[in-house]
C-alpha cells in the first residue's frame, strides 16, 4: 500500500554533534535518489566536513537551502548520521520517516519526540545481520574505518617503528601488535598493522575467528580457553575459565608493544578485558588504543576521549573514530542508507512493506505485523 503517491522529499541536515564530520548523503547517492524519482533537500554546508561542496550536490540534483527548519518541515524522509536533537524532531512532518544511527532508547526526550510526532524511525543499529542486509550494514562499514584509524593512532603514539628495519645503525626489530577482538574493526586493524610491517596477533574468545585472523597474516593468540557456543556466538565463561584466561593474557602482554582493543557488544557496555594490573605489568613505552572507549572501554584504565599515561604505558580512548576518515566513511555510510531507503521507495513514492523482515525488525517503535494465516 502506497503511503504517499507523490514524489517523496529526502532531507539531509548538517550534522551538529561535536566532532562529527560525516554526512548521510553524498553527491553520488543524491544522484541515485533523484534518478529513483525522489526530491532531495539539503541544508547548506551539510557535506563540507566530508569535503563535499554544496555545488556538487546541486549538480547532482539537490535543492540546497540555508536553514534546517525548511528541511525538517518538508522532508518525508530524513537521513542522518547522529540523531537530531529532540527539539528538531518535534518540528518534523507528522508521520515522516527517520533513518540513521538513532539510539532512540538511549535518550528519553528523543524517544518521546519520535513517539509524539508519530515518526517512523529506522535505527540502523537494529538492522538484522543477514546476508541480504550486508549492503545496508552501517555498523560494519563504519567499524572498518574505525579499526583502520585505531592502528594509525597507535603507530603515531608508539615510540618505535612498526616494521623491521635494517640500517647502518643496526637492525630494528618489528613492533609486536596485539588486536583484541576479531570483528570487522578488529580484522581491519589486523590487516592495517600487518601492512605497516608489524608482527601481528589477534585474540578473540571465539575460536572460529582463527581462520580469519590467519588469512590476514596475523597469528591467532590461543590462551587455552575456548568460549565456543551455539550458532556462532560465544558462550559465557565460568569464573575459573575467565581467571585462567586473564592470567595467561596478563603474562602475554608483558612482551607486547601495542594493543588495539576492539571488542564490543551492541547495546551493552564494552567487556573489560585488560585490567589495571595487566597494564602495570606491561613494559614502559607500550601503547593501548581502546576503540571501545565510547561504551566504557575494554581496558579498565581507559578514559574515554583522553590520552593518558599509566606507569609508562600510553592509553588512548578515542571517540567517533569513523568521523576521522569522513570522506570514505561518508561514502560507505551514504551507500548503506541509500540501499536501505530503496526498500521503501518505489517510483519516488514511499511504500512501507511491513512483510519485509528488514523493515519490520528495524523500525522503532516496533509495529504489530499481521502474521500470515
Automatic annotation (TrEMBL):
GO terms for biological process: NADPH regeneration. Its EC number is 7.1.1.1. Residues 155-317 form the Alanine dehydrogenase/pyridine nucleotide transhydrogenase NAD(H)-binding domain. Pfam families: AlaDh_PNT_C (PF01262), AlaDh_PNT_N (PF05222). Keywords: NAD, NADP, Nucleotide-binding, Translocase. It comes from the Bacteria. GO terms for molecular function: NADP binding; oxidoreductase activity; proton-translocating NAD(P)+ transhydrogenase activity. InterPro entries: Ala_DH/PNT_CS2 (IPR008143), AlaDH/PNT_N (IPR007886), AlaDH/PNT_NAD(H)-bd (IPR007698), NAD(P)-bd_dom_sf (IPR036291). One of its GO terms (cellular component) is plasma membrane. Residues 11-146 form the Alanine dehydrogenase/pyridine nucleotide transhydrogenase N-terminal domain. The transhydrogenation between NADH and NADP is coupled to respiration and ATP hydrolysis and functions as a proton pump across the membrane. Belongs to the AlaDH/PNT family. This is proton-translocating NAD(P)(+) transhydrogenase.
Amino acid at each position: 500500500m502506497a503511503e504517499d503517491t507523490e514524489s517523496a522529499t529526502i532531507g539531509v541536515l548538517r550534522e551538529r554533534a561535536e566532532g562529527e564530520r560525516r554526512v548521510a548523503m553524498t553527491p553520488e547517492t543524491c544522484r541515485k535518489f533523484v534518478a529513483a524519482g525522489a526530491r532531495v533537500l539539503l541544508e547548506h554546508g551539510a557535506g563540507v566536513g566530508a569535503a563535499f561542496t554544496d555545488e556538487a550536490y546541486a549538480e547532482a540534483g539537490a535543492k540546497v537551502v540555508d536553514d534546517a527548519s525548511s528541511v525538517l518541515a518538508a522532508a518525508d524522509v530524513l537521513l542522518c548520521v547522529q540523531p537530531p536533537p529532540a527539539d528538531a524532531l518535534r518540528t518534523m512532518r507528522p508521520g515522516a520517516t527517520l533513518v540513521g544511527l538513532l539510539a532512540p532508547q538511549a535518550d528519553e526526550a528523543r524517544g518521546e519526540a519520535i513517539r509524539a510526532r508519530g515518526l517512523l524511525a529506522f535505527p540502523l543499529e537494529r538492522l538484522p545481520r543477514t546476508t541480504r542486509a550486508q549492503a545496508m550494514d552501517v555498523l560494519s562499514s563504519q567499524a572498518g574505518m574505525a579499526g583502520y584509524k585505531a592502528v594509525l593512532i597507535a603507530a603515531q603514539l608508539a615510540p618505535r617503528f612498526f616494521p623491521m628495519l635494517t640500517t647502518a645503525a643496526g637492525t630494528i626489530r618489528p613492533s609486536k601488535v596485539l588486536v583484541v577482538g576479531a570483528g570487522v574493526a578488529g580484522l581491519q586493524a589486523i590487516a592495517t598493522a600487518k601492512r605497516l610491517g608489524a608482527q601481528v596477533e589477534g585474540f578473540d574468545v571465539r575460536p572460529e575467528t582463527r581462520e580469519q585472523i590467519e588469512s590476514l597474516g596475523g597469528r591467532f593468540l590461543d590462551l587455552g580457553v575456548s568460549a565456543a557456543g551455539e550458532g556462532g556466538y560465544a558462550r559465557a565463561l565460568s569464573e575459573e575459565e575467565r581467571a585462567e584466561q586473564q592470567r595467561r593474557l596478563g603474562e602475554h602482554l608483558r612482551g607486547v608493544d601495542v594493543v588495539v582493543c576492539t571488542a564490543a557488544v551492541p547495546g551493552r557496555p564494552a567487556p573489560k578485558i585488560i585490567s589495571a594490573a595487566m597494564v602495570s605489568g606491561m613494559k614502559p613505552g607500550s601503547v593501548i588504543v581502546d576503540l571501545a572507549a565510547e561504551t566504557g572501554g575494554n581496558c579498565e584504565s581507559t578514559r574515554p576521549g583522553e590520552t593518558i599515561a599509566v606507569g609508562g604505558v600510553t592509553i588512548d580512548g578515542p571517540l567517533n573514530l569513523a568521523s576521522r576518515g569522513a570522506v570514505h566513511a561518508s561514502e560507505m555510510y551514504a551507500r548503506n542508507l541509500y540501499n536501505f531507503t530503496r526498500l521503501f521507495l518505489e517510483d519516488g513514492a514511499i511504500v512501507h512493506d511491513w512483510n519485509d523482515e528488514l523493515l519490520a525488525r528495524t523500525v522503532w517503535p516496533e509495529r504489530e505485523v499481521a502474521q500470515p494465516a
